[in-house]
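Box S2. Input/output pair 1.
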Amino acid sequence: MNAVWTALPGGRTNQVWRVEDESGRRVVKLYAKSGGTPLFRNDPKAEAMVLEAIKGRNLAPEPIFSGDLPSGAVLVYAHQRGSPWRSGVAPVAHLLRSLHDLPLHADLQPMPSASDDARSLMAQTLDILSQIPSHDAQPLRALQPDGVTFPSGPRRLLHGDPVPDNLICPAGEPEGMPVLIDWQCPAVGDPLHDIALFLSPAMQQVGRGQPLTPDERKAFLTAYDDPATEARLAALQPILHWRMAAYCLWKLTRSAPDRAYEAAMRAEIAALQALSA
């Protein structure tokens, strides 16, 4: 049986192929052995665990195999036909709400907790800035928000990276609910963590070339329909913008800088400064 292997674009960390033969299409992911970042883990065991726990719910691809090879950890799952999300925020809001409404599976309780309260978000951002040369980090340190104190909300299963390229819209169904792929940094914590990542001006800039408009942001929150989570998001938004700007700067100051994050950082800083304008 001859299989056709096609490298898939989009992944910034791991190698991914679509494999097609008489039995159908599958995706094979070979994990980089050290592909994590200060904001996004690269955890093959966690991804396999989550896909198994939520299979059959149309929120993620169906898992087929996971294991270790001499070249690294491997995950195989059913190929999701469609294209990466680029517009139409309501289906994404409904998808994330469906995910966050799931009962927290007992096997997932040991999953790492997301940084989603004011203190832990501040600590995480300062840690990111500590990994950046001080002369580069100083302008962002000067933008550190003051007086933000807010606890985290309920503990829910989080995707951890719901950015445009990780949302696959079903082929031929422009209004259909997307499917979340690339679950290598799942967590448990406040749903605002996933929401903030999707709404992030930087992540939208990197993923689709432009941040969401104010109307798109409003439409997303209306469709998600959780006033308590929206209130926590609003309270923590200054730190969330600051953290993402720090992450963009971290990406830009690596030995192999990712220049896509230049415009992304500018977008995040502009959003932070607009809050106090």
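Box S3. Input/output pair 2.
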Amino acid sequence: MEFSQNELEIYSAASREAARRGGQILLKWLGKTTTQEKGFRDLVTQADYESQQVIQDFLKCEFPNHHFIGEESTSESHESSQSDFCWIVDPLDGTTNYVHGLRSFAVSIALYHHQTPLVGTVLDPVLEECYWASQGLGAKLNGELIRASGCNEIDKSLFVFSFPRGMTRTNPEVIRFLNMLENVGSIRRLGSAALNLCYVACGRADGYWATSLAKWDVAAGWLIAREAGASIEDFRGHQLDLEKPFFCAAATSDLLEQVKPLLNV
């Protein structure tokens, strides 16, 4: 199904407004919120819940027939929904940073039609940076078009990455990290998957790899990075799977080909 530029802009504008509302909640609770542990080393705050609620309320008002999946309430089943449209929301990506006062976190909102991403928005409310993209229309940062860096030399690249929770020294991710450490120019672990993908999109990072994320972590960022010209693949040679994100995003296809053997362990 094809969507007009006008239709996509309606969805994108709604996603940006929803992200703005969620971001206001995060700033309101910053340094004040209570913290719970919903799983092993997996934190959740009152800010997560309240941000998601205002986002859901807004999107449900604008698009009452659309399905909604948020990280903090996944009781609704996409399979049981009668709508082909699904909003996938992370109301606070980077909760550990948020809890510790590290001001690198984001709101992530994406709209999918069946399995196809239509629009994606990632908002950094502290820096007031809003990244967004619509299918086939490029990616923007605060309204200005952005592009991936164009880096194709691994020894000059800066990569960001995500480690899974409960890491042990025998985890294959340690081997991946050491392989990359020996070959790339620099490595950073920043704590927000959504922002990591946006940093690849705007050229602040040349690549990003992750193996243990959830769909709401990457649903918007994938589209933003792709629309900015980045190459994204499951480095095991499998098809990318939103349900089990396992991938590397790189500024260029040449750079991606150089890092895939290092990650495929």
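Caption for Box S3: The radius of gyration is 18 Å. The first helix runs from residue 5 to 29.
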